[in-house]
Structure formats: structure tokens, C-alpha cells
């Protein structure tokens, strides 16, 4: 591990260590590991992927408010450590364009950007993805499920950010769509099983909710 990735790790732990919204340090560590694996499979630049993965949630407006000022902090942090200007710009550009923001629309154009986006999305799937969704909903004060809430299958960025949802609806509003939005073959391969697991969880959840499993 280079010194800079070790320092980025310390910074991310400092900022996200106490998080209970599903964006804690261990989310970062899983995304970093997945990003390195996808980088190896695709030939993407491992340093850029690892750094972007380590810092990717430090400009999330859900957690830290003003995204622009967070991105400026990341830029200065990289400059202070003499990260090559082209790498630094690339890393910041990935972080700025990572979010889902309702539509899956994305300004990511480089292989490294696509790799980190896939890694972040894979961590929203499967058993860990299910756990994170319920953790996030509790953190945000949303219900786990409320059958009277409409499922919004297409939303503007504004609606996605501010609208009322639930953990259950989030599967339909975002998580079940992610498989189709992945960029790399390796991520699609990993997503298969995670996607199936979520579908089977939802079937079970619905059966228990309705009591159809009980007799
Ligand atoms: P990322 O790690 O990509 O920044 P998000 O910030 O979109 O992901 O979400 C973090 C976690 O919280 C994910 O597992 C996601 O599914 C979940 N989550 C995000 N928005 C909602 C929501 N409105 N309701 C329930 N869970 C959510
Ligand atoms: Ni993330």
C-alpha cells in the first residue's frame, strides 16, 4: 500500500468511522476491495480506482452537506500530498459523478470511473445491500415498509433526494435496477447472485408480511 492510500484510509476512517447510515468505514473497505478486483479484471489504473473508492463518500451531500466545498477539500488534500495533477483531477471527477441521483444518469466516462461506480453499486446489492438499506432507512427516519406508500419507479433527482420512501420501496426504486446499470462484465457476473438473493428476500418478506407463509 502506498503512503497516500494509507493516509486516505486514515482520513476516511476519521470522517466515516461513527456513521450509522450504511456509509461507515467498512462500506469503504468493501468498495475498495471490489474496485481493486474490477481494476485487475479490466486493466484500469489501480491507484486511481483505489483512491477514488477510499474517498468516494467524503463529498456525499446526504452526510456532509455542501458537495462543492467537500470536493474542494479533497482537491487540496490530494495537492498537499503531491498526487499528480491529472490523477487528482480524475479522482475528484469520479467522486463528483458517482451518485445514483434518481435516474442512473451519470457523467462518468473513464474506465476507472466505471469501475468505482460498479464497486459502489455492488455493495448496495445482496445480503449486505439489504442490511444497508434497512440501516439507512432507520437513520433517515423512514419506515421499513408501509404498503400505502406508492412505489415511484421513475423519479427526478429532486424527488429521489426529498421524497418519502421506505426500505421496502427502495428495492423497487433503485436496487433491483442496478444489475442492468453496471458497466463491467466482472461486476455483472458478481451481481447475478446478489440480485437473485434480494429477489428471494423480497418474496419471503412479502409472504411473512401478508401471513401467507404461516398457513
Ligand atoms: P452510496 O454508497 O452509493 O453512496 P447511497 O448513498 O445511495 O449509496 O446509499 C447508501 C445505502 O443506503 C445503500 O445501500 C442504499 O441502498 C441505501 N439507501 C439509499 N437511499 C435510500 C432510501 N431512500 N431508502 C432506503 N435505503 C436507501
Ligand atoms: Ni458508497
From TrEMBL:
<dbReference type="InterPro" id="IPR006674">
    <property type="entry name" value="HD_domain"/>
</dbReference>
<dbReference type="Pfam" id="PF01966">
    <property type="entry name" value="HD"/>
</dbReference>
<protein>
    <submittedName>
        <fullName>HD domain-containing protein</fullName>
    </submittedName>
</protein>
<dbReference type="InterPro" id="IPR003607">
    <property type="entry name" value="HD/PDEase_dom"/>
</dbReference>
<feature type="domain" description="HD">
    <location>
        <begin position="24"/>
        <end position="125"/>
    </location>
</feature>
Amino acid at each position: 500500500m502506498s503512503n497516500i492510500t494509507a493516509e486516505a484510509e486514515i482520513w476516511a476512517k476519521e470522517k466515516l468511522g461513527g456513521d450509522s447510515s450504511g456509509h461507515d468505514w467498512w462500506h469503504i473497505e468493501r468498495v475498495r476491495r471490489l474496485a481493486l478486483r474490477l481494476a485487475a479484471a479490466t486493466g484500469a489504473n489501480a491507484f486511481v480506482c483505489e483512491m477514488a473508492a477510499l474517498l468516494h463518500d467524503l463529498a456525499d451531500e446526504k452526510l456532509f452537506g455542501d458537495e462543492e466545498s467537500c470536493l474542494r477539500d479533497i482537491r487540496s488534500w490530494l495537492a498537499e500530498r503531491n498526487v499528480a495533477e491529472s490523477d487528482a483531477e480524475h479522482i475528484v471527477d469520479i467522486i463528483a459523478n458517482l451518485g445514483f441521483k434518481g435516474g442512473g444518469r451519470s457523467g462518468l466516462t473513464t474506465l476507472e470511473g466505471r469501475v468505482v461506480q460498479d464497486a459502489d453499486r455492488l455493495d448496495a446489492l445482496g445480503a449486505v445491500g439489504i442490511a444497508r438499506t434497512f440501516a439507512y432507512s432507520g437513520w433517515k427516519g423512514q419506515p421499513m415498509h408501509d404498503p400505502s406508500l406508492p412505489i415511484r419507479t421513475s423519479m427526478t433527482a429532486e424527488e429521489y433526494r426529498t421524497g418519502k420512501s421506505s426500505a421496502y420501496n427502495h428495492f423497487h426504486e433503485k436496487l433491483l435496477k442496478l444489475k442492468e446499470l453496471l458497466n463491467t462484465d466482472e461486476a455483472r457476473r458478481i451481481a447475478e447472485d446478489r440480485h437473485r438473493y434480494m429477489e428471494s428476500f423480497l418474496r419471503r418478506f412479502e409472504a411473512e408480511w401478508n401471513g401467507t407463509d404461516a398457513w
